[in-house]
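User: Here's a structure from my thesis project, written as structure tokens. My advisor, Dr. K., wants to see whether a designed sequence matches the one we expressed. Can you design one independently, without my sequence as a hint?
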């Protein structure tokens, strides 16, 4: 049986003036943007941490250090692409991802589907394998007060098993149908 592993990610960024608001690779028309070393795409970051965690590859900060100038203002979608490669190198493939963006504003509505499609394209998976949801905290806490946006994600990954290995694992029927 191929090994199945689960990973969890959480992220939050502060909303500030003078920054673009990018969530799930989509630039959203909003007076404030998320502060961070990269584009501060909170949703992509939570998904990245879930995938890295599932494969026991450390966290986003260890893999893409904020002290490294090459990640300054980088699109987090390209970080997702790097994670896709790391995951493939460890011999796992993505089964599915479920993510939630936590903010009272902006209202994400139809953008959620576009975010899922964007991230799926970068990870080279079917959009059906990634779900993006949104929730509010009804005015409570930093997300409710509009001071920041948070996101959480869970990812399931499955060991890639070659056809030969699969055959070895499940002894075939050679011999049972002899001399018919
Ligand atoms: Zn982040």
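Assistant: Designed independently from the structure alone:
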């Amino acid at each position: 049986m191929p090994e199945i592993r689960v990973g969890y990610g959480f992220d939050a960024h502060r909303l500030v003036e003078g920054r673009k608001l990018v969530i799930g690779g989509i630039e959203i028309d909003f007076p404030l943007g998320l502060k961070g070393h990269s584009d501060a795409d909170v949703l992509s970051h939570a998904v990245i941490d879930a995938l890295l965690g599932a494969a026991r590859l450390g966290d986003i900060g260890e893999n893409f250090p904020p002290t490294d100038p090459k990640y300054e203002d980088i699109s987090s979608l390209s970080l997702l692409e790097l994670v896709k490669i790391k995951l493939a190198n460890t011999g796992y493939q993505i089964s599915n991802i479920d993510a939630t963006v936590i903010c009272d504003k902006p209202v994400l509505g139809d953008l959620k589907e576009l975010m899922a499609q964007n991230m799926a394209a970068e990870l080279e998976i079917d959009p059906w394998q990634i779900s993006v949801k949104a929730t509010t905290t009804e005015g409570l806490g930093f997300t409710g007060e509009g001071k920041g946006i948070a996101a959480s994600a869970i990812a399931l990954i499955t060991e890639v098993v070659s056809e030969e290995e699969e055959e070895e694992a499940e002894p075939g029927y050679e011999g049972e149908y002899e001399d018919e």
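When you compare it with your expressed construct, this may help: The pocket of zinc ion is lined by residues 11, 13, 36, 40, 42, 45 (CB under 6 Å).
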